[in-house]
Fold this sequence. Notes:
The chain has helices at residues 26-41, 126-139, 150-167; strands at residues 46-48, 58-61, 71-81, 85-90, 100-105, 107-113, 119-125. It is globular, with a radius of gyration of 15 Å.
Amino acid sequence: MALLPILRYPDPRLNKVAQPVQAVDARIKALIADMLETMYEASGIGLAATQIDVHERLVVIDTSEERNAPLVLINPEITWLSEERVKGDEGCLSVPGIYDGVERATAVKVTALDGEGQSRTLEAEGLLAICIQHELDHLKGKVFVEYLSPLKQGRIKTKMVKSLRDER
Length: 168
Ligand code: NI
């Protein structure tokens, strides 16, 4: 297993649209293991393949307190979104240190393949529902800050570019 470098906003590669995973083979299973390790190491609750510069429809999630309930979604599709919506603060491993409000559906239904290539349907609510919407946005090339006002996005870009420069 290996830790993978996470792309940082506003890297334009975060705006690429992911393509379907063609087969849940050894390469994808190794990628899943590396993505889980990377997500846990970074104390994140979700990581999309887009964020590690792999543009295939694959996300890993773990919203459990104990950090022992990994969820793998391959070629996920949201089939239902609740009409009820809630606005809550979100963060993202690609936008470290930034938290801001995004409105999301409070519940979702999603179909996907699991890490073994089996088809699954999942109903989620609360934090997991929000995390699924956030991660699936990454696969469409969308970062959560892109829901914020242009003014806020500009400020965040400036801050991110500066912090990357300071790290070098
Ligand atoms: Ni994210």
